[in-house]
Design brief:
heterodimer, A: 363 residues, ABC transporter involved in vitamin B12 uptake, BtuC, B: 307 residues, mainly alpha, two-stranded antiparallel ribbon, globular
């Protein structure tokens, strides 16, 4: 007996939507194995990781709070990924958004207008946009690989933020901690549901996801970019500009990540610190894939990914496991998704016996 | 002057060594047509496996072996996804990097406060007694010599052996290689595993020789820099060596500048290797012919013998 992959005449639509579910199920199964391997009672561990975090109102609010930056960034990235523009530096663009938006909040500590927050969001979007513009410009002008450039800029952004909060922007009354002053109330997102931490940033994220959906599914430009991703030659023949595809693909992700950065510092954090994101920019890459590069799917995927973050925190408190287990599950989820995607394009056939090698070489 | 020159050269070569291993491994994988963006993840898992094995066994060589095997195991996961299950190589490589980051952070938590003694440098008999050159080039850690040996071996393998020719043929056109009877997928598997093992050694060098301790995410982007180095070297082993030491030098610059009391923010100096990577990529990619002439034609493209 051996397995053989047989190409389907056309990609299976059903499998396209089923494979994220298969991947989720496989991740849960792998979770059972990991927990048992670590000597924890699997069912109890499962409950602590996947159920308890969301079995209270506060837990559900945290779920949505953490899902907001993920859905926002993933939607921006999906616009690029559909066109084969690989922006993997969203984490750095998020940090620049936090620096621009947070810098504005620090520059105007006496701000009182409710429009001030809008300015901060715009500043954050600009920061992310500018940071993403670097790899876009270099790719268009010098043919430079945008994957590597955008990733290198993550490290530069992290160091820039570290410089600011250790140096010029450090709170003079902050006992030398690497953090800025707290923002004024006008520079913070209003809370949506007291006493939880869920804030209006969630509505901004939902709005951005809706805009992303309109762009991808209903605009001519979005269509051009999809063609560019599926068949580059066809896009060129139709006269769609590949330079513009790169620009839009990169900048969409950059602006979204920048807005997400403002959402963190003007939301749960309330100031600039040396770490403004637990890797949302990278987790959003997984969200984009698991959501099938489709904004609706991305909303669901971001909730799942957010649950993995909460589960990690819960595992630390209740199972005495490092919260880094979140990253392990995130990686596995993407592995299983990519693995089950084989079923979209291929049928798996069981063959009774390997055919003679000669035959195969001739075929 | 010479008192300063020797430590600068020694430190530069040490800082470049993990890049040599990782980039040589990736170079072989890419020559067979496989673009594995998971170098960072494989290095991290190699680093923690090597560190844990060294702590447990007390032997650095057991650690290096463990790092190598862990790196190869990681690349095997990638190979199954990208070569057997036909996943997009960019996505599978990203997944490997993210998974490696998570796995190593998780596995490394209990070892975060453990310190290791760095192994002694091994001077080469006779050669190390040459004035100036001896202390600069021949008084290193054994892994540094191994990295030079690997550069020579990879170069000989790719350009002077029949097996290397077949591997390059698979990277240019897997369909043609299959047609004349070579198992393209199996060859890609082997090349990918070699890349993983080399990334594992690179990680082992970091965690048991260079630092020597375990810190979450300690590779700090070196896996990605190694990927850039392969492009910079236009897929030639000798240039990988030159590029790696260039980066080693840039990395060391910050320590010597701080030691010399240069009044620049440390964060600016720390960002130099990343900025240098971008500059180098721009310089080499500026002329599209350089890349097109040297890059393996089928790089990153999935291949299925039946399709």
């Amino acid at each position: 007996m051996r397995l053989r992959l047989e190409a389907r005449p056309a990609p299976s639509r059903a499998m396209r939507y089923l494979s994220p579910l298969v991947a989720t199920a496989l991740t849960v199964v792998a979770g059972f194995i990991v927990f048992s391997g670590l000597g924890r009672e699997p069912l109890a561990a499962f409950h602590a990781f996947f159920v308890r975090p969301v079995s209270s109102l506060n837990g559900l609010a945290e779920l949505v709070l953490k899902a907001s930056p993920l859905m926002l960034i993933a939607t921006g990235l999906a616009i690029g990924y559909r066109a084969n523009v690989w922006n993997i530096g969203a984490e750095g663009q998020l940090i620049l958004g936090a620096i621009f938006g947070g810098g504005l909040a620090l520059a105007f500590p006496g701000a009182e207008s409710r429009w001030f927050l809008v300015l901060m969001v715009l500043a954050g979007a600009t920061g992310g946009l500018l940071w993403a513009a670097i790899p876009a410009l270099l790719r268009n002008r010098f043919n430079t690989n945008e994957i590597l450039v955008s990733l290198m800029l993550v490290y530069v952004a992290t160091l820039l933020l570290s410089y600011l909060v250790h140096g010029p922007w450090r709170d003079p009354q902050g006992f030398n901690f690497p953090q800025s002053r707290m923002f004024a109330d006008a520079a913070l997102y209003p809370i949506l549901a007291e006493p939880t931490r869920l804030n209006a940033g969630f509505l901004v994220a939902l709005g951005a996801v809706a805009c992303g959906w309109l762009f991808i599914e209903r605009s001519f430009l979005g269509y051009q970019m999809r063609v560019a991703g599926l068949a580059e030659a066809a896009a060129r023949y139709a006269g769609f500009s590949s330079g513009r595809t790169v620009w839009i693909g990169m900048l969409a992700g950059g602006a979204a990540a920048g807005i997400a950065g403002v959402g963190e510092v003007a939301g749960p954090i309330g100031q600039l610190t040396s770490s403004v994101s637990p890797g949302y920019g990278f987790a959003a890459i997984i969200v984009a894939f698991v959501g099938r590069l489709n904004p609706v799917g991305i909303v669901f995927a971001s909730l799942l990914m957010s649950l993995l973050y909460l589960g990690g925190e819960s595992a630390q408190m209740e199972l005495r496991l490092p919260s880094a287990i979140t990253g392990l599950f995130q990686g596995m989820l993407l592995f299983f998704l990519l693995g089950s995607d084989v079923l979209v394009h291929y049928r798996v056939r069981l063959l009774p016996r390997a055919p003679a090698p000669r035959e195969e070489a001739a075929a | 002057m010479t008192e300063l020159l020797v430590p600068i050269v020694v430190a530069t070569l040490a800082a470049g060594t993990p890049l040599v291993f990782a980039a040589l491994g990736e170079l072989v994988a890419e020559k067979s047509g496989v673009l594995n963006l998971g170098v960072e993840g494989m290095m991290l898992v190699g680093a923690i496996a090597a560190f844990a094995a060294t702590v447990a066994s007390g032997s650095a060589w057991v650690g290096v072996l463990a790092g190598m095997l862990a790196g190869a195991a990681m690349s095997f996961v990638f190979a199954v996804l990208a070569l057997t299950l036909q996943a997009n190589q960019v996505a599978a490589g990203l997944a490997l990097s993210l998974f490696g980051l998570g796995l190593s952070a998780f596995a490394g938590k209990p070892l975060e406060s453990v310190a290791l003694q760095a192994p002694q440098a091994v001077p080469v008999p006779l050669l190390s007694e040459i004035p100036l050159l001896g202390p600069m080039l021949f008084s290193h850690q054994p892994l540094v010599y191994l990295s030079w040996l690997m550069a020579v071996l990879v170069s000989l393998f790719l350009y002077r052996s029949r097996a290397g020719l077949v591997l390059r043929a698979v990277g240019e056109s897997p369909a043609s290689a299959t047609a004349i009877g070579y198992p393209a997928i199996a060859i890609r598997y082997l090349a990918t595993l070699f890349g993983g093992a080399m990334a594992g050694i690179a990680g082992a060098f970091l965690s048991i020789v260079y630092t020597p301790m375990w810190v979450e995410g300690m590779t700090a982007g070196r896996g990605w820099i190694a990927l850039a180095l392969v492009v910079f070297a236009t897929w030639r082993p000798a240039r990988v060596l030159a590029g790696a030491y260039l980066f080693g030098g840039v990395t060391m610059l910050q320590f010597f500048a701080q030691g010399a009391g240069v009044a620049v923010a440390s964060q600016l100096l720390s960002s130099l290797p990343y900025l240098a990577t971008i500059v180098v990529l721009v310089l080499i990619s500026r002329n599209p012919h350089t890349i097109r002439l040297n890059a393996p034609v089928s790089l990153g493209k999935p291949y299925h013998p039946d399709a």
